[in-house]
């Protein structure tokens, strides 16, 4: 996403162009785009939207100008005239394509080579290699739990997005904060067994919840065919149920008496899908971390 904006720095990039550049032929909602922009602004500390501008109902613009390679040898005081965000965007714009390809190839090789080791419960080398290339901040989730989440995602063929779980404010009700965390299916969607994960990264006192929905590859009886995919969502917690109205239909998540989540998808064309999710990592009711070690 940032690479696409950097290549068009100073110019409007439409929502459609961003969808095609980032997700290609994979169908995702605008919520995924909004969530991705939100994460970029977080990484760039762009709280006031001075770096990434929103053009209402049209798209986004990176307020930066590419710099040439010659500027890397300019005097230090001259280079200081360019702000840090502009310099970062410029370097991304001129980054050699072979370097990107080499990095992605190394990550893919590591994934193929070490999947058997991951399945046997060893440390997750793919996560370590990816973190070496681009360290990630997962917020309040401890590193051992991140490794466990990543390893399980690989085992279930779930494309784990780059997520960051934010600590809830003190005034967030318990009925809302208990959704915060990482939830994953055991046997998958009922009848199809397609694996599923829900990551709730932030909640607020008004009941607004944001995060990601992650589906594994389609199984023989899956209603929707296709490869594994993930997408961002923004929902609302009301009457102890988190609801999100997406492209496929109405999504609802309710916490059961035994601490699981009953997740339902009511399709727009009719029919309902159901999957039960286990708490892989959650923030406990009292504020303590609750872990599912099974």
Description of the structure:
Residues 1-64 form the OmpR/PhoB-type domain. This is Winged helix-turn-helix domain-containing protein. Keywords: DNA-binding, Membrane, Transmembrane, Transmembrane helix. It comes from Bradyrhizobium septentrionale. The chain crosses the membrane at residues 98-119. With 294 residues, the chain is an alpha+beta fold. The chain has three domains: 2-93, Winged helix-like DNA-binding domain superfamily/Winged helix DNA-binding domain (Arc Repressor Mutant, subunit A, Orthogonal Bundle); 97-155, no CATH class; 174-291, Beta Barrel (Lipocalin). Helix content is 31%, strand content 26%. The protein contains nine helices and twelve strands. The chain has helices spanning 2-7, 15-23, 30-43, 76-79, 84-93, 97-119, 125-133, 143-155, 174-177, and strands at 12-14, 52-55, 59-62, 181-185, 196-203, 208-215, 229-238, 241-245, 249-255, 261-267, 272-283, 289-291. The strands form two sheets. It has an eight-stranded antiparallel beta barrel. It has a three-stranded antiparallel sheet with strand order 1-3-2. Strand 5 and strand 6 form a beta hairpin. Helix 6 runs antiparallel to helix 7 (125-133). The longest helix has 23 residues, at 97-119. Mean pLDDT is 79; it is low at 69-82, 113-125 and 285-294.
Q: What's the pLDDT, averaged over the residues?
A: 79
- What is the succession of H and E elements? HEHHEEHHHHHHEEEEEEEEE
Number of strands: 12
Structural class: alpha+beta
Placed side by side, the strands forming the largest sheet appear as 4-5-6-7-8-9-10-11
| Number of spatially distinct domains | 3
CATH domain class of the largest domain = Mainly Beta
Helix content: 25-40%
Beta-strand percent range = 25-35%
CATH fold category name of the largest domain: Lipocalin
């Amino acid at each position: 996403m940032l690479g696409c904006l950097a290549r068009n720095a100073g110019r409007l990039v439409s929502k459609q162009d961003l969808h095609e550049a980032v997700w290609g032929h994979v169908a995702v909602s605008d919520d995924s785009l909004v969530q991705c922009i939100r994460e970029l602004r977080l990484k760039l500390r762009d709280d006031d939207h001075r770096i990434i501008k929103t053009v209402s109902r049209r798209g986004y613009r990176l307020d930066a100008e590419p710099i040439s390679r010659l500027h890397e040898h300019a005097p230090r005081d001259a280079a200081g005239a360019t702000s840090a965000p502009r310099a970062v965007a410029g370097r991304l714009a001129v980054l050699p394509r072979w370097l990107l390809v080499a990095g992605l190839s190394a990550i893919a090789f590591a994934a193929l080579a070490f999947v058997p080791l991951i399945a046997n419960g060893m440390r997750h080398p793919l996560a370590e290699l990816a973190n070496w290339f681009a360290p990630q901040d997962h917020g309040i989730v401890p590193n051992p739990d991140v490794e466990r989440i990543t390893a399980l995602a690989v085992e279930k063929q779930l494309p784990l997005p780059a997520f960051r779980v934010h600590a809830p404010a003190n005034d967030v009700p318990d009925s809302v904060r208990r959704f915060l965390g990482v939830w994953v299916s055991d046997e998958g969607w009922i009848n199809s067994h397609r694996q599923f994960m829900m990551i709730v990264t932030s909640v607020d006192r008004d009941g607004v919840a944001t995060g990601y929905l992650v589906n594994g590859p389609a199984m023989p009886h899956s209603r929707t065919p296709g490869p594994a995919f993930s997408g961002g969502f923004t929902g609302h917690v009301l009457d102890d149920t988190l609801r999100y109205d997406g492209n496929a239909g109405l999504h609802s998540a309710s916490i059961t008496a035994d601490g699981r989540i009953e997740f339902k998808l009511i399709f727009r064309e009719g029919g309902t899908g159901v999957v039960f999710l286990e708490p892989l990592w959650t923030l406990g009711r009292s504020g303590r971390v609750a872990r599912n070690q099974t």
